[in-house]
Amino acid sequence: MIDSQGAVVVDLLQLRYFVQVVDLRSFTKAAAALHIAQPAITRHVHLLEDELGVQLLYRHSRGAEPTEAGRQLRMGAQAIFRLLEQTRADVIASSAVVSGSLRIGFPPSMGDLLLGDVIGTFRSRHPNVELSLQEGYSHAMRDALLGDRLDLAFITGQDVNPLLVTTHLYDEQIWLMEPPAADGAPRRKKRYQLADVASRDLIQPSRANTLRQMLDDQAARQKLTLKVVVEAEALHLIKDLVRRGVGSHLSPYSAVVRGIERGAFIGGPVAGLSVSRFLVRRVDRPVSLALTRFQDILTARLAEIHQTAKGAVVLPGPADGSRQRSRRR
């Protein structure tokens, strides 16, 4: 496009499509990642080349590779996108009142020790923000982010996707939660080996659950089989079944520790078992002030838990914590 001064004006949408093709080295993959038809993305890239008057991509049977001009444009485009995102954030931050909406996804195994406290604090400080909380497995959270049905999601295990920014939040131990003592006598925290767990009747989520898959894989590596006698997804139901003596339950520390500390259950960590939690958002969506404030409260609460968890929750080191995987890498 040529403006009234005769200068070439580049469309931002065309730039985004072009960068996606370069990063994935394929028109087909770029179209699938962006959820648009391939002819549309091809047409926009052709228009971009026509407007700039240079060839940006080498097309071949295996996909596409950037020319030298294409590599230069990609570097410039990434800088433009970063500037746009920062400018949006600065404009939003200029408002004295945090408002709008925030859609957050989280896995069933994330307990109230973290999420409940963070949501409660956030609501008390920012009552003008409308919150939508959605529970689901990690793959469903990823799909909801890509489908623009969530703004932010907690997932178990790292999921590398060029359209997502993934930040390592923390690692936490896996604990076994067992029924309380029949005589009601208090029990000290116990420690378990995976072989101890294999002898228990367990109540766990289905095999679609990321944590369940990890536990089954770990048991298989030790030539053990976990005896799951009941499959249930809702954490409150699982706790009720454990309380009734139906079985025991493996879950992250944050999901079960409060019940164990109160004496409603007995339990403790399983040696060698832990789970990694990540915070994920779309790379091409502006970071709202509400999202920034939520992350501030989350970071502060994680630091508090880390101080009191006695090794059950481990925060990433500076290099790891700042590592973010997205299409900008």
Automatic annotation (TrEMBL):
<dbReference type="InterPro" id="IPR000847">
    <property type="entry name" value="LysR_HTH_N"/>
</dbReference>
<dbReference type="GO" id="GO:2000142">
    <property type="term" value="P:regulation of DNA-templated transcription initiation"/>
</dbReference>
<dbReference type="InterPro" id="IPR005119">
    <property type="entry name" value="LysR_subst-bd"/>
</dbReference>
<keyword id="KW-0805">Transcription regulation</keyword>
<keyword id="KW-0010">Activator</keyword>
<dbReference type="InterPro" id="IPR036390">
    <property type="entry name" value="WH_DNA-bd_sf"/>
</dbReference>
<dbReference type="InterPro" id="IPR036388">
    <property type="entry name" value="WH-like_DNA-bd_sf"/>
</dbReference>
<dbReference type="Pfam" id="PF00126">
    <property type="entry name" value="HTH_1"/>
</dbReference>
<feature type="domain" description="HTH lysR-type">
    <location>
        <begin position="10"/>
        <end position="67"/>
    </location>
</feature>
<comment type="similarity">
    <text>Belongs to the LysR transcriptional regulatory family.</text>
</comment>
<protein>
    <submittedName>
        <fullName>LysR family nitrogen assimilation transcriptional regulator</fullName>
    </submittedName>
</protein>
<keyword id="KW-0238">DNA-binding</keyword>
<dbReference type="GO" id="GO:0003677">
    <property type="term" value="F:DNA binding"/>
</dbReference>
<dbReference type="GO" id="GO:0003700">
    <property type="term" value="F:DNA-binding transcription factor activity"/>
</dbReference>
<keyword id="KW-0804">Transcription</keyword>
<dbReference type="Pfam" id="PF03466">
    <property type="entry name" value="LysR_substrate"/>
</dbReference>
